[in-house]
Design goal:
Length: about 700
Amino acid sequence: MMLTGSYGLAAFVYSIFWLYLINGARDGRRSAIIFMAVGFCALWAWAYVGFALSSHPFFLWLAQPLDVLRVAAWSYFLLTLLKTEQLGRATLPRLLKPLAFLLAGFTVLGLILQGLILVGAKLAIEPQGLVTLNSLGLTVLTLLLIEQLFRNVAPDARWSIKPLCVGLAGACLFDLYLYSDALLFKRFDVDAFSIRGFVHALAAPLVAMSTIRSKDWKTHLVLSQRAALQSATLVGVGFYLLFVAGAGYYVRYFGGEWGRALQIGLLFLALLVLCVLALSESLRAKLRVLIGKHFFSYRYDYREEWLRFTQTLSMQGDASELRRQVVHGLADLVESPAGSLWLRAGSGQQYVQAACWNMPVQSGTEPADSEFCRFLQSSGWVINLEEFRSLPGRYDKLSLPDWLLASPNAWLVVPVGTQTELIGFVVLATARTRLDVNWEVNDLLKTAGRQAGAFLGQMQATEALLEARKFDAFNRMSAFVVHDLKNIVTQLALMVKNAERHRDNPEFQQDMLMTVEHAVERMRQLMMQLREGATPVDAPRGVELNEVIRRIQAAKLTQGHQLNVSLSERLQVRVHEDRIERVIGHLVQNALDASSEASPVGITLVREGQWARLEVVDRGQGMSAEFIRERLFKPFQTTKPAGMGIGAYESFQYVQEVGGKVDVVSALGEGTTVTLRLPLFEPSKLPELVLQSEAK
């Protein structure tokens, strides 16, 4: 049992040491030699473990030649170190050659004697005694090389070579005692032989220490943070299971009659706790931060983090998914459980929430020219809200928007964009564990924000290209429609030209009616395919919305649709009359299409400060928040089977063009309220404005 444990420990230690050196085995002569020496030590120890477990003589025959090769490899490594330029005495080069020949002789002789024993050769002198004598000589030679190395090493290099000399000298002195005792008493000391593996295992850490200090002996294996995290997790689980096993053993044998029942209950509780801990994101986050902070010079494994972040951004299926992945990828870098992305919207004058992950949806906006956005654009800093609250001076007296201060658990604001353009920003929630936001975290987040900005910029460019292609297709379709209209106009013009001459001809009158009917039907079909979107050449003027709404009400009444209209005072706005009538008519028609006959559509017009507020309300099918945010005011987006998706886009663009605003509140199955706010046109104030401008 002692033999198995002793040599088993040596086998385990030298095997781990050999795996540590495997990456640098081809990086130089000394690296290859120490790799070979440690490998022989591991094989030698495993051979004795095999002999102890099976008592088969094969393992003993294998262990003895490996013992010779092990010591010879260490001696050869010491000779190689003695040849280093820093170890030069004038007499030393003349001494190295005889020592090398002596080492080769002991090695060859030892292997020959082992072969003779293996084949059972009969000699005048017992071969086993010669083997012991040869091993003693090889051990003495190794001690001599250690002494020469320590004496001749340069003083500034002795720090790195000292653990190697101490470790090998200790193992060789033990072997010297073992072989001397065996020669004197014609037998090996069983107790000393049993603990020999333990002694050599103690020497391995000292040799490893010199290997670490002397970096040219090997190339370091790079241990990633993921491997460290997994190893630490396995070690933690191992200790946990050992603790549970010990507690179960105690309960089983000291719990009396209830011992076995308590043991089963304890086992179930332990497994339940283990499952809870294994699924805990907070625990994993704390373990990652602990390992990165205390076991690595840098907190992040940048190769691993960058590959993971790039893979996260590349997983998107559409634009909305990419936005969510941007938030998710940045949040994972700092162990944040939630976040939201804000991007430019509409004409680019404001930022709105474009995506959110585990965060509530916010309907607020942030002007693009606000102090907050200008700070993000000019500095490119990551704003730490905890630091801002305690040390606001570090941010040059920056004032944060109210919606950000009111956001629950808001922690970091990461700018997303390029060196010259702020595409948007990401608001991250407080991390799962305490995380020190130092220079390393800030640099990683800023770089990741620029990478995300490149992805989002490419997405926006792709969307713009697709819209341009759709408009190109729309224009090509318009050319065909114009061609058809020209044919209709030509046909009507010919009919008018002949009307004076054939107006009393009944057949001509019948033909004329059929032609007009056909032309009207054809133009109606064309109007269903195409909505005119050209900008009028005349300037906007004061238009009374009350009259426009009354005309729309009368037109819909002739079509069999009842509108509930509520008008307060007469309000004028500065618009193009035909276009604003088309905008309001489009909103009313959409409301009628979405409503049933039992649910009338309402129109309300009131004054709101310097604005005319017009509301179109229905109780129809409604729209989802996602459709309103991402599709409603974009061209060629519609929910109608036969719609082209131009009306809402045209209406939104025109209202913004005249300085107005559009707000939409809707829910699926509850209806929709569309609110137009148009600036009032008050001619009575124009003379005052003219006089003020002339006075200036």
